[in-house]
Structures are given as C-alpha cells and as structure tokens.
Amino acid sequence: MINQLFGNYLVKSGILSLDQLEQAFDTQKKVRVKLGLIAVTEKLMTLEQSEEVNRLQAQMDKRFGDIAVEKGYLTDDQVSRLLGLQGNQYLTFAQAVTDNGFMTLKEFENAFVDYQKSLEFTTTDMEDLKSGDSDRIVPLFLPSDCDPMQKEHILVAVRTIIRLVDSDAYVGRASWVSSVESKGVAFQCMGGDKEMALGITGEEAGFLSMGEAFAHEEFEKVNLDLLDAVAEFINCVNGMYATGISNKMFVDMVPPVFKAEEVTVNGGRLLQLPVYIGGNRINLISAYDGKMSI
After folding, report:
1. Single residue among 116, 133, 150 that ends a domain in this structure
2. Are residues 21 and 157 located together in one domain of the fold?
3. Whole-angstrom distance, CA of residue 214 vs CA of residue 212
C-alpha cells in the first residue's frame, strides 16, 4: 500500500511521471532490495559508508553484510534484521525508483520527508506507513474518534479487498458524513447487541474494478448483477467480522440491499473511507451504533 500512496504523491508533486511510476511498479515486482540501501534508509549506515562497502565488494569475494561487519559499520544482529527487510514494500519501491534512475536515494528520502509534512504525520506514523502492514496503515487515515469496534470492521473490509480483490489497493483519508450520494450502492445492516452496517458506493469505474475482480466476471456497466457480487463481498466481510467479535457481542445479519440507480445513503453519522482499486475509487461506508438506509 505504501508504494501506491507515496508513488501517487510523487506523481502529483511532479517528481515522477505516471509512466515512470508504472515502470517503477513493474520493476518492483522483480526487485530484491540491496542490503546497503536498507541499511541507509534504516539509518544504520551513512550513504558514504554504503558506497565504500560497495566499492570493496568489487575487490573482495564477500557479501555486503560481512564487509560492513568487518568495517564496524554493522553488527551481526543488525545484518540479520536487515536481511529480513529485503521484501519490505517501501524498500522495494525505493530500489525500483533508484535502479531506474528516476531519483537518487537522497532525493527519494527527501521527498518522503516532504510527504510526511503534507500528511502531518509523526515519525512513528511514517514507520507504520513504511511497514506495509494494512493493519498499521489504515488506522492512520481514520478519524481519531473512530470507535475501536468500528475500526476493526473497516480493517476486516480492507484486508479482504487486498486478499480477494486487489493486492495493490490503497486508501485515502476517511471522513464523517451524514449521507452519501452515489450512482449505485450495496450495503448490509446488522442488528443484535449493536446496530451496525457496511456499504460500498463510488464511481462506476471503481464498482467495475471491484465487482469484476471479486466475481471473476466482466460487466459492461454497473447493473444489478454487478452489485449483487459487491453485496456478496460485503456479506463475506460482515460474516468474518461477526465471527471475530462473537465472544464480545451477539450480531444478527440481515440480507444485503443493492440498487443500480442514483441513490442517497443515509445514516446520521457515517464513516466514509476512500479505497482505490486498480486506481479507481470506491467508498467503504460504515455505520456503528446506527442504521443505514436509502
């Protein structure tokens, strides 16, 4: 998710073109991050030390980590930790961008600092972003007054999108709204100890991207068949969520509702989280301690 979030920031800032970003994503799929780049981004070595070890590697039949330990730049434990980070999404993206010559590592890191300022995130927040873990990333984009149970509902939905729909899906900043207008909607309410609901609205392209990926079927437009697939996705999410909280409260699920027409979704206090699937936007709409209706 961090490669999509930061990559789109680089495009919007004019640092990368859209073509360069797509090329970086293609390269990223094949990348195994160099240990030196990880050591520098983790602030365990300076760029000058990394370049020195790289030069020595050209003269010695030794691994980067072995030379860095011999020079006193790293410990054995640090090398082991860095090796474990070689598949990290932030680092593979950095490697892809720098390997293609689009940015230097210094430019990449400086841009990441500017990205942090634009988000008004703390250093700890940025470490959560760099982790690539959606369970650590998504809460950064939710309101601070979001109920923990509602937050977990959203996390189940995003995890399921990443697992079943688009592994490269990413989120935008969530907001509280009283209603949502959309050309189509699918949602499901739940009763029991607490009234809750989860819905999906969005752009036609977003609905198509989601419905086709989940149903493994092509649709020409947003219609009832497409929204039936989206509703089934919501039902799957709610089923997993209800199972997960069954030891805390009783949840009664009712049949999903879906409409392929212009609608206004009401709920009094709805949490709207933008999610981008194949670059196209849908909105996860969550109601907690309240109903959802059209």
Report:
1. 133
2. no
3. 6
Residue 93: closest CA among 162, 169, 24, 32? 24
What's the pTM value of the predicted model, to 2 decimals? Answer: 0.80
pLDDT digits (tens, 9 = 90+) for 237-289: 998 888 888 888 888 888 999 998 888 988 888 999 999 998 899 999 999 98
- Residue-range definition of the domain harbouring residue 194: 137-288
* 102: number of Cβ within 10 Å: 19
Pair (32, 103) in one structural domain: yes
CA distance 186 to 197: 11
- Report the C-alpha gap between 251 and 222 in whole angstroms: 30
| Residue 93 to residue 231: CA distance in whole angstroms | 34
* Residue after which a domain boundary falls, among 85, 105, 133: 133
Contact indicator for 278, 209 with CB cutoff of 8 Å: yes
Q: What is the pLDDT of residues 149-208, one digit of tens each?
A: 999 999 999 988 988 889 889 999 999 999 999 989 999 998 888 889 999 998 889 999
Q: How far apart are CA 223 and CA 14, in angstroms?
A: 37
State how many domains the chain has. Answer: 2
Do both 284 and 207 map to the same domain? yes
